[in-house]
């Protein structure tokens, strides 16, 4: 028998799915109610409660923020019973709080777990991201390329025209120039209002989602979570932290990040094998949302392991009390 402190990813994966599931079910009654904070809080509470049932000595490395701003699931919080392997946890209890409040597609609950030291301790700043799906040469497209070059390079590798490529981008004023440049190549753009973890994951399932590439600036924590997802699903992501002021640089220093200009690859953001779970809150391209019926609630969860590349879709149904 191996040591109890080893990271048993097979055994822990069902527990992780339960954490994502319960967070999603808890926020279900707040879908479309216009209250982002309440929806987020419900997911946070449920996620924390479930995490604390797991036999792990977990530390939140990507969480709700720093201790002084987040009372629960703050960065550095210890979770789990303490009886079990030491693990790092990255989570976003409700990725797409606004999507949930407005009942718009692709809100997810997201959690990843790996051995201690397996994930980049990204501070809560922005990150410039670029992602493509599996099957391409490593480093085919890079953040150093201009947006148009990324598109034409991907099209050439795929043997298609740029007009056959669809790029997913967050609709923000800061992306106006990027959007114009990508459009000038002839490529299509799927603009999303929120939810770039899902945006990146869409690249790994382009046949299902129609998305070939993701680019633009979003949350750094979401970048690490997306890297964990792609490590399981296949596909590439690069990220570069962005700092708007000295305070943000100080946060990076506090998190142990010293090289501020570095471009991180997927395997530099997530350096060891991880497990990843995401449950659909509102219905989307990758996952259906929570279904509420008079007697039942039903959820669907993607549960994935990077070690094997296995992807499970788990439907869960529970009676409504
Ligand atoms: O809204 P901003 O400041 O552009 O930030 C973008 C980030 O916010 C989100 O759209 C939503 O995140 P939350 O729902 O967790 O707040 C992320 O997917 C994305 O990375
Ligand atoms: Mn988020």
From TrEMBL:
UniProt-annotated binding residues for Mn(2+) 1: 40, 64
Keyword set, alphabetical order: Carbohydrate metabolism, Hydrolase, Manganese, Metal-binding
Annotated substrate binding sites: 95-97, 126, 172-174, 194-196, 219
Cofactor: Mn(2+)
Superkingdom of origin organism: Bacteria
InterPro entries attached to this UniProt entry: FBPase_class-2/SBPase (IPR004464)
Gene3D superfamilies: 3.40.190.90, Fructose-1,6-Bisphosphatase, subunit A, domain 1
Signal peptide segment: none
Positions annotated to bind Mn(2+) 2: 92, 95, 222
Entries under Pfam families matching the protein: FBPase_glpX
Any single GO BP term: glycerol metabolic process
GO molecular function: fructose 1,6-bisphosphate 1-phosphatase activity; metal ion binding
Family: Belongs to the FBPase class 2 family.
Name this protein carries in UniProt: Fructose-1,6-bisphosphatase
């Amino acid at each position: 028998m191996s040591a109890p402190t080893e990271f048993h990813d097979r055994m822990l994966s069902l527990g992780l799915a339960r954490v994502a599931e319960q967070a999603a079910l808890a926020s279900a009654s707040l879908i479309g109610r216009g209250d982002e904070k309440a929806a987020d809080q419900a997911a946070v509470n449920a996620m924390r409660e479930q995490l604390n049932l797991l036999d792990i000595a977990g530390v939140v490395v990507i969480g709700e923020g720093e201790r002084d701003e987040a009372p629960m699931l703050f960065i550095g919080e210890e979770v789990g019973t303490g009886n079990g392997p030491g693990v790092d946890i990255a989570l976003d209890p409700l990725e797409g709080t606004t999507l949930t409040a407005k009942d718009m597609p692709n809100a997810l609950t997201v959690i990843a777990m790996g051995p201690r030291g397996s994930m980049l301790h990204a501070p809560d700043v922005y990150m410039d991201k670029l992602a493509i799906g599996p099957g391409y040469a490593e480093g085919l497209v890079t953040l150093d390329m201009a947006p148009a070059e990324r598109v034409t390079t991907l099209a050439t590798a795929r043997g298609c025209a740029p007009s056959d490529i669809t790029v997913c981008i967050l609709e923000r004023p800061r992306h106006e120039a990027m959007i114009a440049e990508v459009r000038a190549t002839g490529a299509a753009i799927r603009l999303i209002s929120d939810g770039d973890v899902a945006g990146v994951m869409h690249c790994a399932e382009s046949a299902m989602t129609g998305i070939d590439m993701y680019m633009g600036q979003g949350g750094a924590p979401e970048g690490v979570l997306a890297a964990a997802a792609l490590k399981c699903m296949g596909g590439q992501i690069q990220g570069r932290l962005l700092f708007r002021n000295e305070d943000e640089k100080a946060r990076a220093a506090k998190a142990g990040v010293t090289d501020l200009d570095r471009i991180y690859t997927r395997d530099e953001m997530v350096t060891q094998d991880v497990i990843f779970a995401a449950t659909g809150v509102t219905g989307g391209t990758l996952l259906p949302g929570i279904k509420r019926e008079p007697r039942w609630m039903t959820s669907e969860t993607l549960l994935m392991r990077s070690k094997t590349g296995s992807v499970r879709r788990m439907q869960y149904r529970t009676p409504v009390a």
